[in-house]
């Protein structure tokens, strides 16, 4: 979605995140931030009252949905490819669903770059299209070519919305600049993610693989 956020918002967010001074420990070069929705720059109304984004969320999640988490990812120069993964698992295994039916989306992530280097060279996230319709937690069991991933380039001010179940990975950052993005995670009102709920009201950071 183009024109999702303003330049003023982007500049304010990168200044806020820079002020957190996240350090790189134990050789890790990718940091995950937990950001508080009580901070003015991370108010979910930025998304839920947006003229284009709000209708998209309602189309994907129905009329009753809520914020699960606000966070960010910082990928430092030298960060390697992540393992291919889903952010969330399908609610049922195929054997538990009559005829292997595909359930509607129950959770999505709104992904907003806040640095201008959201490119494949800097490790822009790559997605395996259609894998939100598959079952199981292991990508290698799907028989999909690892080289078939799509790496969308997201200009500053724009955002990407993706299903919680899609297989993806953050790429290697081969540049000399940190690549940073902020995400808002939303889910249908009946769905809760215990891990995300535990830290949704703090601002902190942790190292991720």
Describe the protein.
It is a single chain. The protein is an alpha+beta fold. It is 14% helix and 22% strand. It has helices spanning 7-18, 45-48, 53-61, 194-198, and strands at 30-35, 65-75, 107-113, 126-127, 160-163, 168-169, 179-188, 204-207. The strands form 2 sheets. Strands 5-3-7-2-1-8 form a 6-stranded antiparallel beta sheet. Strands 4-6 form a two-stranded antiparallel ribbon. The longest helix is centred in the N-terminal third of the chain and has 12 residues, at 7-18. The protein is globular, with a radius of gyration of 17 Å.
Query: Class by helix and strand content?
Result: alpha+beta
Q: Average pLDDT across residues?
A: 84
Biggest beta-sheet profile? 6 strands, antiparallel
Distance between the termini: 28 Å
